[in-house]
Amino acid sequence: MMPNPANNIDVKRRNRANTLRSILSCDRISQTELTQRLTLSWPTVLQNVKELTALGLVQEVGEYDSTGGRKAKAYAPVRNAKLAVGLDVTQNHVGMVLVDLSGQIVRYTRKKSPFSLNDRYFQELGSVLRDFIGDRDTGSRIQGVGVSLPGIVDKAGEELLYSHALGIQNVSTAAFSKYISYPCTYINDANAAGLAEIRGKGFTENLVYLSLSNSVGGAILNAGELYTGSNLRAGEFGHNTLIPGGRRCYCGKEGCLDAYCSAKVLSNHTNGNLLEFFDQLRAGNPEMQKIWQEYLRYLAVAINNLRMSFDCDVMAGGYVGAFLEEFGAPLRGMLEGRNTFQQDASYFKICRYQVEAAAVGAALLQIEEFIQSL
Hints:
single chain, alpha/beta, Nucleotidyltransferase, domain 5, 23% strand
């Protein structure tokens, strides 16, 4: 049977993209190591490297010391050759990140901007984005903008079906990009954050991401791919019932996880300022310590339930997740005590991105689309 030319093109494109990913994952790499990682012949890898170099995405950076034969050439990524912007829309703020080809944050900012479904708001969105991008050189390297939205986005990314946080439903996502001059993609905020966390750790991993922000959400990643469910609601962990007949959730039901583990549960004790809560906790305020211990007990139940349900690593992120490295030590002991099968909490992970994870994940959609197009 004759080979299908279309399939050959797809294979070449995939190999080229994987070559770039491998080079992006390190500061520099030898031709031998690159060949071993990719399990491809050196002529194939060399051709890919030449093409990526011609595109300005890879550069030769000298040679490695000889081990007896010819010196191996060293290659390095040109990470800032292409960039993408992530835009995180929330009820009261807009977060923005600029990321390079490897997903590293070049810069970020967060501005107060209460959401309103009108043209003035969308004009402001375009304006703050232009100010954030700044100079023309940066703008010329931007591949697109990923927009993170707090709600259910349809599979095509064309409609925000429902957002309690923004108080809207069935709104065209094109409204958000009306005054943005770059290609835009759209994604749920917790899904975006989950994608940001798993990138660079291996796309074959399974992970449940629990977002602990002003509302509780999450993402389910199966072999590195998002599982969104039959109705695009997979990962809505905030509405799992934690305490039947318990505290009233914003959704109107009683006992939802959101009512016990959202960031507001903590910040409501410090006039809406989460940083102030942890400042007081750091200073040894006994009242805040009591509130924190109660919060962790509920969180331990939620995390254990996710572990028992999905049997994979569980990661906590979001606003509260950013503080768990410093204040989360008691949580591991609680998790060990709840683990049915082994006294171990090594499955529990703390987020890598302590700022703007959702914006980063949204931006990475544009980066990944670019890499796959090579």
